[in-house]
Amino acid sequence: MQIEAITIVGGGLIGASWAALFLAHGVQVTVQDVAEGFEARVTDEVRRAWPDLVALGTARGDLPLDRLCFASDTARACEDADFIQECGPDRLEVKREIISRIEAGARADTVIASSTSSLLASDIQQGAHNPERIVVAHPFNPPHLVPLVELVPGRQTEAEAMGAARAFYESIGREVVELKRDVVGHVANRLSSALFREAVHIVAEGIASAEDVDRAVMNGPGLRWALMGPYLTYHLGGGAGGFRHYMEHLGPTQAARWADLGEPELDPETINTLIEGVNDLVAGLGDVDPVARRDAGLIGLLELKRRIDSGDGQS
Amino acid sequence: MQIEAITIVGGGLIGASWAALFLAHGVQVTVQDVAEGFEARVTDEVRRAWPDLVALGTARGDLPLDRLCFASDTARACEDADFIQECGPDRLEVKREIISRIEAGARADTVIASSTSSLLASDIQQGAHNPERIVVAHPFNPPHLVPLVELVPGRQTEAEAMGAARAFYESIGREVVELKRDVVGHVANRLSSALFREAVHIVAEGIASAEDVDRAVMNGPGLRWALMGPYLTYHLGGGAGGFRHYMEHLGPTQAARWADLGEPELDPETINTLIEGVNDLVAGLGDVDPVARRDAGLIGLLELKRRIDSGDGQS
Lengths: 315, 315
Hints:
Number of helices of chain A: 13
Number of strands of chain A: 8
Shape of chain A: globular
Distance between the termini of chain A: 39 Å
CATH topology of the largest domain in chain A: Rossmann fold
Oligomer: homodimer
Number of domains of chain A: 2
Structural class of chain A: alpha/beta
Radius of gyration of chain A: 22 Å
Strand content of chain A: 5-15%
Helix content of chain A: 40-55%
Largest interface: A-B, 104 and 104 residues
């Protein structure tokens, strides 16, 4: 089915970023919220995102503000939607309440995709009229730049909804990773949390500073992780013998490291140590605006990857 | 002290990559090894690395092959060295034997920096004549491209050796991360192992495929990790309230994820599952040469970061 109109429920940062991306792909977008002044804030965010989308080649021409509408009533806002992107607060009772308002207006077969980062699809869909069309579609911040969408079914989700959601996100250039079942943190945040746990251990134990942990990541393994994940990395680490050779020769080294990894607690003392470390890190940034640097870096990186993956080399 | 001559002990891939980097900085390089034909292999690798170093602006002009020498006798090769980069096999008894041969020739105050990824500086330096000048200086593969050097003292290492090693690596454009003490896997490989452990859990439990885990990393958090580490990432995630706000609001979410992380075993069944997953991933690469893609990507990424960090924006 052709998606011509999308309703975004929740006009915070994530909702606004989705709105910019959907507008860039020629879709009619309605953003629903009840917060005072959200229309102006969403419009500002969309305006801010537009030049990035143009730089990436995702958007062309002027921002089509005539295709961006606002609404306060959830049910009515969802009546004509071909697809619904839910971006409300990540609290289960609030989420279920939002879903029930969406279902009061939406057609029975319209896919409802929740942007939740911390809730499970199975929990969100419980008690819904049509739980089979509810999926989790978790983006990474900011969604208009970072291509990943994690698509997760709940226990009651049907394959048709997953297929329709996948087809839609792929049609707007997203890299869809489909989970077989829902787990806490989906995939990417589980991996991020595993890395962060060890980063906390290293700083809490006084092995290295927070600033140095960050420098190690972004000047070392992080450079590769922008280009490939851990499996291909270790496959290449195995040389001609590939991943099998790596596991035979360095599997025991990995296992020894796993056994030595930390299990820190986020107690007040540890949190204070981390905050002091991050304060030092931030002081070291000087005049740099880290958000502008991140977004310029992401755009450059996405352009670079398109170039190397299209076979144009470095030219 | 000005480093004018370096001896690299061990002419494998890491040694050859260090050689190319040192040559690019105008140093006289001697590579010692006893393997049949290592001179030709090192020369080939250095030739292969040179255009990348020129592209990065690290090297200028033609490869100065007249500054690259080879030797088979370790002690003699180290006599005139101002700095020694040890790149032998990562087995403790072999390492100690190599150190003893190096010390038989080297001046008593020449820094000996081991490239070891899995051994501890304290273990390597045990039994040495001058343990105070032995450090670990662990690069990331390939060292001539990836800027990170993890500098680690052993219990007997003196601050003077750490300072001299840091000054040298910084003079050749390396990003030095100094550990306060030696731990298994230093910093970057501990973080990589933490991420890999969860990646193994996700595939072993059938939550997502190896290919999809890799896609999640390189299209999601991995893009950011090329630009910043976990601490700055979460600091920005806290908005105006920064890292403190993040920890107050999302600390419990992190802790919940930590509690849910897997502790897989690398038993034969799991290893087979992983190998099958990586085989699918590799089949999906088609005609792409992943090593050439990685190196082109690394060069482009380092150029991009230099551009955004020098304030040139995206132009």
